[in-house]
Amino acid sequence: MTLSQAMRSSSSGLTAERFRMDVISTNIANANSMRTKDQDAYRRQVVVLTGNNSGVSIERIAPDMSDLRREIDPTNPNANEKGEVFFTNVNPVAEMVDMIGATRSYEANVAAFNSAKGMLRSALSIGDV
Asked: What is the pLDDT of residue 123?
């Protein structure tokens, strides 16, 4: 792998992890949404990443199809005929753990990019007198 390929690979990782952090932020922002009569509750979104020879690419964003959180509250105007209210399947604690992982991966890609940049700078300065 050449230094420019290493920098491209790290750059794609930076882009992917930044996108992942954006999706996690959207999940956290919707953590308290509920199903209404007109619209289903927000479903957690998951970023699917794939690796290839040039780095990391975003394959797709997939909805988490796990069960929605259900509470019994017949006084809620969004309750169904059984008195059930359905909330999003976003778990804020799990999202924060995912955010920490994405942040650490982002930081690792920054360090790898800076290392490759430093090696390239050193290689270019070899001929300087």
From this structure: 83
